[in-house]
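Late entry, written up from scratch paper. The run itself happened at the end of the previous shift, but nothing got recorded in the book at the time, so transcribing now.
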Amino acid sequence: MILLADTSILIDLEHVGSIGVLPRLAPCEILDVVLAECENEKQPHIIQHIEDAGITVIETSRDLAFRANTLRRGGVSTNDMMTVCYARDHERIVLTGDRPMRERCAELEVKFRGSIWVTEEAYRRQLLKPSELLHWLDVWPTVGRRLPAEELTRLRLMLTSTT
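Output as recorded:
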């Protein structure tokens, strides 16, 4: 299993200072165009944290951009579709918190995971303490991240049963 990260998942993990957990789950990649999207004033060190984590940057091609652009629809950007196309071509699992992108992955039969999966896997593999993972669940809603209430409740119960 190789993970292919989207901007949204990296921004989520940067908010909780945990980008480094991704390569501990599985080898992780990011497209160069997605890496460029990550740069922002609110998270000035995100690119450095991605590089420090050892996430592999994949150089994209015009051909990939062209194919992605022809498949765009439903609020999914060309860069998002480049991620989906690359994942399909190279059998990667897309990591994203973006609903339209998850929907396109499902339509094109591309495997995908999100923040809930990352949290569960970090817990299951004992990569972080449950208290730190609970902190993620507290921070994400304050930065505009919307996760399903049922899933949040389930995760909180799972994480508090061991603390």
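The beta strands are 3-5, 28-31, 56-58, 93-95, 112-113.
(Scratch paper discarded after transcription.)
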